[in-house]
Recover the amino acids of this structure.
């Protein structure tokens, strides 16, 4: 199938729309047609906003005709993860609990993208309430990895990654609590960036773990990631944890120059736990960067082995409170057989949440409960500090930390569902970045022998997204091979 | 021997307002037990003089000014409720004094 | 055996910010149900709280007035429990690091001063209001109150009687009203008091098991409920029983407390730091700014009224009970009135008019300058006290100046000796029998004759002058 415009990046589409080479309507129609033709195989989309998308596109075209200045994402077709609050359509978090839920407001990120003249195609699948690493925890559907329909797309932003990889949108907005942007981006061969905690407003992002969640884009190239950050970053009075810091022009960081850049290689990331193929591709990427004049230095993150334990204490604790509000009073599922108050809570929650969500609520409740708080929650907060200090020390020796995004390429459906702990361990390289509130970026660095994408991760100091983007862009422009397209259609 | 027992799973489920059938309880005793045992590895670390990281950012005093903005139209507020009349969210009868 | 009660109070006060504590919804008590609500206070998915700075300022002011230490660093926490009046099923509150702690209030009961320790005062959000009027075994929930700014003030268990509790609540309310941080209206629920009550044999120190009495609608109700509960607990123990730890309500009609809910087990609120909000840092400069803006507090003002204006403790107490009345009084003084006379006129005559009209001093049409003017007119002998009362009633209703009323009604006192003497003579001639009685030694009849003089002069005769002239005539 030919896919005019669908294989283009956001910045290419924007330039074409601004120049008048194509209308936003034509681009949008092309994407909608491709979604209708292909998404039956991928199952990335949970909602397709046909009319709404075309109306947005027409407004962009009208704006151009009127001579007004077009926004920085003019005509760029974007999909949104199911937990982004929008007045349009539903905001279900891929949960039975929120089936049919209509948010009365647009989240800040959504407003900013709309103000930048982006076009929303619809919403995409995810693990229920962003809890998972494979999108298998969705209550709506099972999203496939476009590179191998028998493999998971990763998670929790699996729908986003699959949609971008399969050219079903130009970019997609995901959220990342422990790797939920970077891990699926790696598994589907996209670029995914989790900005520094506080860079992007969380207002309108349904919370999983408030001190870890951050919104970011999944894109086809590094320039699109930079462009998108230009649109969405910056202080929001509706989010007390959004930082009042000037937002640079992130695209200006894409200089291609990494001469003298100090790349830190954490010795703890390159152990036997790392799959051989992933290691090989990541090492090759390091060579590319060295060839461009970057220096490498070994660094140590001595507490990284404790990151998963600390992470699952903190994120489940916060989630147990964040998800308490789903009680069937003001919105969401209420069990029809509930007769009294307790029945309403217990029956609605037990039937509305899937098993992984219930498991995490129980764990989070346990670690906060009387007698266990100090041993688990307080301890985890202390370990979180140690992990952050590890990075602080590493960044005294280097500008950017480089390593794998995941230990292995995409795994098969069902491979890790039997053992929740094994699933948790697949986030080993990503979660410490959230604990340390740092920006992290995953970008493709090759294909495995079985044709599955492999991603590498770059990590920088707080608010040093420019360093990440510069490094990633330099590699991307000089890696010397084409990732190609997934073998679908 | 699992890290936690059935009684603890039941207690935590009670706090979280979840109900579990017997099979789920059995499964959770093992799953939660494994995860908690994994979490217990943190005990290997001496954190005596470590300040807990209670907030993700170092920022303090982020406030809003005392200004009244727009509220939701009532029908918007009530629209998503499983049960409501023109004025109220409706729930099963609340017993007096049940407030904590 | 003698028993003593040990009581600690928990008071929730709604702070009178214009908007809610974490969102921009208004705080009007009278708004129709579920109209002062938004995605934030409804706890809708994807929303975040942002703390209202006015709440911090007013809470610090309250804390300082209660003698508290203001925490340089404090934080908000989540208190987790399930209830339909709680939009998020957690309440944003403060747990181990409250904004204000370690204060006190010096109350006075039967002339004895006593210090009540304030353990803490912390910021939290109010809950929604449940109605029980919806039919079919269902309740309705109104979220207008959910997210209203709430300050919880907790005392040490330093209170030992209903009188002390009453005195504490009265002084607390008075203080908060002086600060203008809350209207402390119990009927509208902007002040809610709970008492934790236990009893123990006198002379012992261990605490007995306590009951929590809540949902009492007035201070006098709190007084009665505590009295009742102390007696009830003592009776339970005397009869060999044990006091159950429970929450008890107050049935005002029957005058009894009743069991509402027994605590099966201690609540496990699973507090943890609120990740959506940053810590609150009140540095010295900020604290000082608020300290300097504090008004004179009721106890200090009461003492000053006694020393500066020579008022009795009682009068000073009445006039400083509320800040508006105290301000009014001082405006009258500033306008030149005699402090003691002004106090009398305000406390007796003006207060009677206010009470009859069910008005507050803030609604009063009589300007403080007009009270001063009225007192000057009396002092000058231009009008009599009786006339002044009539004039006050008039200006209370119309808002006119005393002079305007005097002129309008021709209410000028006749102080001309010749004119008054003429009236006195006329009355004496008209009542020979009474004149004889007086001369025969019946002093009482003078009152009757004076009445006739005032009547004949339509109340305008200067009474002092008229009496002097009458005596002179009769004795002469």
């Amino acid at each position: 199938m030919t896919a005019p415009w669908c294989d283009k990046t956001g910045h290419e589409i924007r330039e074409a729309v601004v120049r008048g080479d194509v209308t936003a309507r034509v681009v949008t129609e092309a994407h909608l047609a491709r979604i209708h033709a292909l998404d039956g195989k991928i199952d990335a989309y949970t909602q397709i906003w046909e009319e709404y998308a075309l109306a947005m596109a027409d407004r962009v075209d009208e704006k151009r005709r009127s001579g007004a200045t077009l926004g920085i994402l003019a005509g760029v077709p974007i999909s949104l993860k199911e937990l982004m609050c929008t007045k349009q359509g539903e905001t279900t978090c891929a949960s039975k609990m929120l089936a049919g839920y209509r948010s009365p407001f647009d989240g800040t990120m959504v407003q900013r993208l709309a103000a930048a003249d982006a076009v929303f195609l619809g919403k995409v699948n995810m693990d229920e309430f962003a809890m998972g690493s494979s999108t298998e925890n969705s209550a709506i559907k099972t999203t496939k990895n476009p590179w191998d329909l028998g493999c998971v797309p990763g998670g929790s932003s699996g729908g986003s990654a699959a949609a971008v990889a399969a050219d079903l949108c130009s970019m997609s907005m995901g959220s990342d609590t422990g790797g939920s942007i970077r891990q699926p981006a790696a598994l589907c061969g996209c670029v995914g960036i989790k900005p520094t905690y506080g860079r992007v407003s969380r207002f309108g992002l349904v919370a999983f773990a408030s001190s870890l969640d951050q919104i970011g884009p999944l894109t086809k190239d590094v320039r699109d990631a930079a462009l998108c950050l230009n649109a969405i970053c910056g202080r929001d009075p509706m989010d007390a944890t959004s930082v009042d810091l000037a937002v640079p022009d992130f695209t200006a960081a894409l200089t291609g120059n990494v001469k003298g850049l100090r790349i830190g290689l954490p010795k703890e990331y390159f152990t036997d736990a790392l799959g051989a193929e992933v290691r090989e591709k990541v090492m090759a990427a390091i060579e590319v960067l060295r060839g461009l004049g970057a220096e490498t230095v070994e660094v140590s993150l001595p507490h990284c082995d404790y990151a998963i334990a600390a992470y699952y204490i903190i994120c489940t604790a916060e989630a147990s409170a964040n998800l308490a509000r789903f009680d069937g009073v003001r919105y969401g599922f209420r069990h029809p057989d509930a007769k009294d108050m307790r029945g309403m809570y217990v029956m609605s929650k037990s039937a509305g949440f899937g098993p992984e969500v219930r498991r995490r609520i129980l764990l989070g409740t346990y670690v906060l409960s009387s007698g266990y708080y100090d041993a688990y929650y307080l301890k985890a907060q202390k370990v979180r500090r140690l992990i952050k200090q590890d990075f602080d020390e590493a960044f005294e020796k280097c500008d950017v930390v480089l390593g794998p995004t995941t230990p292995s390429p995409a795994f098969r459906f069902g491979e890790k569902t039997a053992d929740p702990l094994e699933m948790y361990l697949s986030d080993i390289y990503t979660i410490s970045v959230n604990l340390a509130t740092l920006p992290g970026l995953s970008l493709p660095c090759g294909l495995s022998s079985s044709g599955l994408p492999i991603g590498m991760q770059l990590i920088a100091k707080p608010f040093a997204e420019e360093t990440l983007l510069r490094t990633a862009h330099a590699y991307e422009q000089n890696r010397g091979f084409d990732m190609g397209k997934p073998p679908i259609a | 021997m699992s890290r936690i027992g059935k009684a603890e799973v039941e207690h935590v489920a009670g706090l979280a307002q979840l109900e579990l059938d017997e099979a789920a309880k059995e499964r959770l005793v093992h799953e939660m037990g494994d995860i908690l045992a994994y979490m217990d590895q943190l005990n290997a670390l001496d954190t005596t003089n470590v300040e807990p990281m209670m907030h993700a950012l170092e920022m303090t005093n982020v406030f809003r000014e005392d200004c009244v903005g727009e509220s939701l139209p009532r029908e918007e507020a009530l629209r998503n409720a499983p049960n409501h009349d023109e004025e109220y969210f409706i729930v099963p009868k609340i017993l007096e004094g049940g407030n904590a | 055996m003698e028993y003593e009660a040990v009581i600690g109070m928990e008071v929730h006060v709604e702070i009178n910010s214009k908007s809610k504590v974490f969102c921009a919804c208004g705080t009007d008590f009278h708004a129709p149900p579920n109209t002062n609500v938004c995605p934030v206070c409804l706890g809708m998915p994807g929303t975040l709280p942002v703390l209202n700075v006015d709440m911090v300022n007013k809470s610090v002011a309250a804390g300082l007035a209660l003698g508290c230490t203001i925490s340089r660093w404090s934080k908000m926490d989540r208190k987790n429990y399930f209830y339909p009046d709680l939009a998020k099923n957690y309440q944003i509150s403060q747990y181990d690091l409250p904004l204000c702690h370690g204060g006190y209030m010096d109350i006075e009961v039967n002339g004895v001063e006593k210090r009540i320790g304030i353990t803490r005062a912390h910021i939290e959000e109010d809950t929604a209001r449940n109605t029980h009027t919806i039919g079919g075994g269902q309740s309705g929930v109104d979220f207008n109150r959910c997210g209203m700014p709430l300050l919880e003030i907790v005392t040490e268990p330093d209170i030992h009687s209903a009188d002390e509790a009453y005195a504490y609540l009265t002084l607390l309310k008075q203080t908060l009203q002086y600060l203008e941080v809350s209207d402390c209206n119990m009927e509208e629920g902007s002040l809610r008091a709970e008492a934790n009550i236990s009893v123990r044999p006198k002379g012992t120190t261990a605490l007995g098991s306590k009951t929590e009495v809540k949902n009492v609608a007035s201070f006098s109700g709190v007084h009665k409920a505590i009295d009742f509960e102390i007696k009830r607990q003592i009776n339970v123990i005397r009869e060999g029983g044990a006091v159950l730890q429970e929450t008890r309500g107050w049935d005002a009609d029957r005058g009894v407390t009743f069991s509402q809910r027994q605590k099966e087990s201690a609540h496990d609120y699973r507090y943890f730091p609120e990740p959506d909000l940053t810590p609150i840092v009140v540095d010295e400069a900020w604290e000082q700014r608020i300290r300097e803006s504090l008004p004179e507090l009721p106890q200090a003002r009461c003492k000053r009224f006694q020393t500066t204006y020579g008022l009795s403790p009682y009068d000073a107490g009445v006039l400083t009970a509320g800040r508006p009345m105290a301000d009014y009084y001082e405006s009258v003084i500033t306008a030149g009135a005699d402090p003691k006379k002004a106090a009398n006129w305000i406390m007796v005559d003006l207060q009677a008019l206010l009470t009859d009209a069910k008005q507050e001093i803030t609604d009063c049409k009589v300007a403080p300058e007009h009270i001063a003017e009225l007192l000057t007119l009396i002092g000058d002998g231009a009008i009599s006290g009786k006339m002044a009362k009539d004039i006050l009633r008039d200006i209370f209703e119309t808002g006119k100046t005393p002079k305007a009323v005097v002129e309008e009604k021709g209410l000028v006192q006749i102080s001309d000796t010749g004119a008054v003497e003429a009236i006195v003579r006329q009355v004496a001639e008209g009542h020979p029998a009474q004149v004889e009685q007086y001369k025969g030694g019946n002093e009482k009849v003078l009152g009757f004759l004076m009445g006739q003089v005032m009547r004949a002069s339509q109340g305008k005769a200067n009474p002092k002058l008229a009496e002097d002239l009458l005596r002179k005539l009769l004795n002469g």
In short: Chain C has three domains: 3-285, 296-402, 417-475.
